[in-house]
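Reviewers of the previous submission asked for a worked example of the structure-prediction workflow described in the proposal, so we include one complete record here. The input consisted solely of the amino acid sequence. No template or homolog information was supplied to the procedure at any stage.
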Amino acid sequence: MSALLDADDRQRAIAEREHNVIVDASAGTGKTSLVVERLVELVAPTDGRAPIPIDRLAAITFTRKAAGELRVRTRQRILEKLATLPADSPIAEPLLHALSGVDTALIGTIHGFADRLLRKWPAQARLDPRYQLEDNSARLADECFQLLIHAAETRTLAELLDGSSAADRAEEAISTI
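From that input alone, the workflow returned the following structure tokens.
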């Protein structure tokens, strides 16, 4: 198997401790693997640096499926590392601590992260502490559809889509609608 062209960048992302890291890449390129390795390296550094407790880290993605996979694969990687270490290894204890906290760690969606912040500080956000999230996906989809229809009927769709990747398809959409 040949080395990845971005192997050095990946290694730097895994080892980085002074800055947050954003991993943005196409499907199937190893984003989840990189983030898992980064989380494990942060909670149980192999270079002698101090471990960062898992409850002090945030791993945020966009879908529940991706967040669930990230949590499962992080737990799996911690267990794999523990299985290969001698009991007296200096990283065994931090790995065990991380394993005990992986289910409550802030590994989730951007929406879950925002909700967690708002629930922690509702007064600062001027929210009722008992606020409830609504699943507005059907309503939002309907609003978008109605906006699309209106913009097509008034021939303002190109203006509405200006600057987006769909802008060059406005005339086709207008004729179709």
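The mean pLDDT is 88. We consider this example representative of the routine output the project will generate in years two and three.
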